[in-house]
UniProtKB/TrEMBL annotation:
One of its GO terms (molecular function) is catalytic activity. Residues 474-484 have a biased composition (Basic and acidic residues). InterPro entries: Amidase, Amidase_CS, Amidase_dom, AS_sf. It comes from Rhodococcus koreensis. This is Amidase. The lineage of its organism: Bacteria, Bacillati, Actinomycetota, Actinomycetes, Mycobacteriales. It holds the Pfam family Amidase. Residues 461-484 are annotated as: Disordered. Residues 26-451 form the Amidase domain.
Length: 484
């Protein structure tokens, strides 16, 4: 039986609209009805523009009737992440400081999505200043996981991922520094791609050179991630790291992408992090799936020595550079842990930052050399199943105490500092029924190969097509953590 419109892929919706079998108004209306049904419980979309969206859809239909076609995302509804600037639409960054901020320009990714024909539904929830792997803030509250309203949807693109999983929109824009695309994708049974720096150019940006944080696509399937990447990617003179290759090269994904590949896997990043037994089993099953697909699979991993120091130093440095003055001027509105992150950056010496830059370069070359032998490295995207939505973060993983809200995220943060593209994929479910994901690291600037392997994995496992029950909520699982 065909899925309802709100669970159709963007690729299929586009084909139907291009063939004249579906209108933009029908498409957008179906998604608005779905938002009205499920968003009050999930709290994924925090600025909502139904009337404006229907006006945009009607205008798209009128252009189509006159022989026009806006682009590859013609009539596709999307709610943009609430730290991506949207001209004329409130952008809060999940903070009371920006509660009423309305930008006068679009982020470059939003600009490109609009030029490709998207219809803007609103904005999706984020943690305060997009800091952390759990989406909650004092302005809008917490986003809940559509598969179990009692647990986290992840973060910082938690609102985007939860909206995808619940059928509120078929594609989403996001960004990833320490796992902000990958962690929520893993917890919400969707796909999130962190591209190589420069693949998706960024503008405006307070630091256009670092590349620790990148923007990228998220969707319910690999084909839609590739479609959105084809729109987001490509050169732009305003972004100094911008790569010259056109985004159109990513528009289609090949089949059989795992056959003949050499895939390494590690359940714990080479013994670097504690990992829950349920997550270990999912990673091992994912490795077995790759082997069944015709890949040569071996248990192996690079050394992530120095990755934690590198990430924490560079993140704190960027926090202070980008937010220090704003936090000082509005200290009463800033979560104490965020203010301390900024102060950690202020306390750094030039020697500290220089050492982190050297470590980052070493980690890049370790991964680069490792992937001269292997085509991909398969890892857990998170070390534990989704935790209680009322916790700020899990205080321990498998009995190992975590120092702060970054501690449990090292499975994603460590990969960040290697500078390689990585995709988060649905890989199964916990005993409690919540999604678990894996991440697959690919060769530098080889997103096309990574997408090919990801699609083969997706087609063989079919986890991505397991939808949440409407209004699903089960009892909270006991656990320890830092409560609000």
């Amino acid at each position: 039986m065909a899925e309802p419109l709100y669970y159709r892929s963007a690729t299929e919706l586009s084909q139907l609209m291009r063939a004249g079998e579906l209108s933009a108004r029908e498409t957008v209306s179906a998604h608005l009805e779905r938002i009205d049904e499920v968003n009050p419980d999930v709290n994924a979309i925090v600025t909502y523009l139904p009337e404006a969206a229907m006006e945009q859809a009607a205008a798209a239909d009128q252009r189509f009737a006159s022989g026009g076609w806006d682009g590859p995302l013609h009539g596709i509804p999307v709610a943009h992440k609430d730290n991506h600037l949207t001209m004329g639409v409130r952008t809060t960054f999940g903070s009371r400081i920006h509660e009423h901020y309305v930008p006068e320009l679009d982020d470059l990714v939003v600009e490109r999505m609009k030029a490709a024909g998207v219809v803007t539904l609103g904005k999706t929830n984020v943690p305060e200043f997009v800091a952390g792997g759990h989406t909650f803030n004092d302005l809008f509250g917490a986003t809940r996981n559509p598969y179990d309203l009692a647990v986290t949807a992840g973060g910082s693109s938690g609102g985007a991922a939860a909206a995808l999983a619940a059928g509120m929109h078929p594609i989403a824009d996001g960004n990833d520094m320490g796992g902000s695309l990958r962690l929520p994708a893993g917890y919400c049974n969707v796909v999130g791609l962190r591209p190589s720096a420069g693949r998706v150019p960024t503008y405006p940006a307070s630091d256009g050179w670092c590349g620790l944080s990148v923007q990228g696509p998220m969707a319910r399937c690999v084909d839609d991630v590739a479609l959105l990447l084809s729109v987001m990617a490509g050169p732009d003179g305003r972004s100094p790291l911008s790569l010259e290759e056109p985004g159109s090269r990513f528009a289609t994904v090949a089949a059989d992408g795992l056959r003949g590949r050499r895939i390494a896997f590690s359940v714990d990043l080479g013994g670097t992090i504690p990992v829950d037994p349920e997550v270990r089993r999912v990673v091992e099953r994912a490795a077995h799936t790759c082997r069944e697909a015709g890949a040569i699979v071996e248990e192996a991993c690079i050394s992530f020595d120095g990755a934690g120091e590198c990430f924490r130093t560079l993140r704190a440095w960027q926090f202070e550079a980008a937010l220090g003055d704003l936090f000082d001027a509005n200290r009463e509105w800033v979560r104490p842990s965020l203010y301390e992150n900024m102060l950690a950056g202020r306390r750094l010496s030039g020697r500290d930052v220089g050492r982190a830059a050297r470590l980052r370069t070493e980690l890049f070359h370790r991964m680069r050399e490792f992937l001269e032998t292997y085509d991909g490295l398969l890892l857990p995207v998170s070390p534990l199943p989704a935790f209680d939505v009322d916790l700020q973060y899990p205080a321990s993983v498998c009995g190992v105490q975590q120092p702060d809200y970054l501690g449990w995220m090292e499975s994603a943060c460590h990969v960040t500092v290697t500078g390689h593209p990585v995709i988060s994929l649905p890989a199964g479910f916990s005993e409690a029924g919540t999604p678990l994901g894996i991440q697959l690291v690919g060769r530098h600037r080889a997103e096309d190969q990574l997408l090919d392997m990801a699609k083969d994995f997706e087609q063989r496992t079919r986890h991505a097509w397991t939808r949440p029950r409407s209004g699903a909520s089960v009892d909270h699982r006991p656990g320890d953590g830092q409560r609000d």
